């Protein structure tokens, strides 16, 4: 289901769905047999976002697009497209999502890779399926189309391209970027990207295609899924349509693409508010780990993941509910470490390093209005690899990236404080780091997690609690009068 929204102005960040979720994050669904009404008020977002489930692995099939159109009397900061098309890149499993994650959790092992990939639910013509389907996008010669591309895949970053056609990137995560043209895009799970394409080639049928990008020691299946970019009244087969995608392990292709994304200084974007003087710094090491497991049938340990060596323990009572009702105790603590408990060569040889982590439900507490910097550092633990990290409730400025171990003395001099992109999901590279900044002006309880679903399930998560300001307008909204939807057993 695609939700079409008109853009509205004049609202502060705190109005972004303060009930249980945020349009910059995800929408929680009520328990079976109940209903719940969400109020979503847009402030600065423009372009494309998406909604998805966040219970177990249900987001694999429960998701859709938010299309945010320009406000009345507002134009696009580029030639108005003749039409637009939502393109959702998906994982395809031949088994039930819940069965897969429950089995892996019970055994303490990895979840099987996706059996295939899909474009808008279509597997295309590269799989030996009894009922092969191709997603077809019909276009008219010389018309311009705005592709609203969403990576809804469970554990795969994706390359995407259209044969013989150039792609012009104009927005990411509902914020306009400086336009640039490329033969392909690289998009991480959780990200959205708005792309212009002009149907200016010889009339015919051209493949569009996607394949995973991976720099991990535990790569996904290297399958290509295809759809068709089909000119109206075209005849014949898919001639002149071979699509060239980067190799799955092409690190340079991924890095060369992501480094071109810059904030656009157009009136349709919010004014740049990059924090210059920082009140709170958080340095987070991202790791794959093991935890003891007495009941696992295969090994005495189970796979885990952590942020600053804390593997997130999902509570039975929602943290937001406990935060609203202070009489509920024991749900979470406010002592998430603001730096790694142990410093080592994060991106080097980790032979002999203790692979275990601590299990806990620990939150980071921020004062309203604080200028926050988070440095996210990948490590070489486990199969290593990059991570798409997403923070609910906020868009943040991606101000820096680099390879190796972050140096807090020299690396900030390389920050881009002029035109950093305003995004909500950031690609943290293999054996490297990124730095993001934002103002904590959205009071509430906000989940931060890796958008590789297997990593989030293993504990690569934490929670930010932004305290109230001094006024009603800078405070969290009260709970719904009708009460929160209740999950079974709570």
Automatic annotation (TrEMBL):
Q: Which cellular component appears as one GO term in the record?
A: apoplast
Alphabetically, the GO molecular function entries are: copper ion binding; hydroquinone:oxygen oxidoreductase activity; oxidoreductase activity
Q: Which family is this sequence assigned to?
A: Belongs to the multicopper oxidase family.
List the subcellular locations: Secreted, Extracellular space, Apoplast
Q: Which organism is it from?
A: Theobroma cacao
Lineage of the source organism? Eukaryota, Viridiplantae, Streptophyta, Embryophyta, Tracheophyta
Cofactor(s) listed:
Cu cation
The name on file for this protein is laccase
Please give the InterPro entries that the UniProt record associates with this protein.
Cu-oxidase-like_N, Cu-oxidase_2nd, Cu-oxidase_C, Cu-oxidase_fam, Cu_oxidase_Cu_BS, Cupredoxin, CuRO_2_LCC, CuRO_3_LCC
Answer whether the UniProt record assigns the keyword Transferase to this protein.
Answer: no
Give the enzyme's EC designation.
1.10.3.2
Q: Name one GO biological process term.
A: lignin catabolic process
Q: Which Pfam families is this protein grouped with?
A: Cu-oxidase, Cu-oxidase_2, Cu-oxidase_3
Q: Which reaction does it catalyse?
A: 4 hydroquinone + O2 = 4 benzosemiquinone + 2 H2O
Q: Gene3D superfamilies from the xrefs? A: Cupredoxins - blue copper proteins (2.60.40.420)
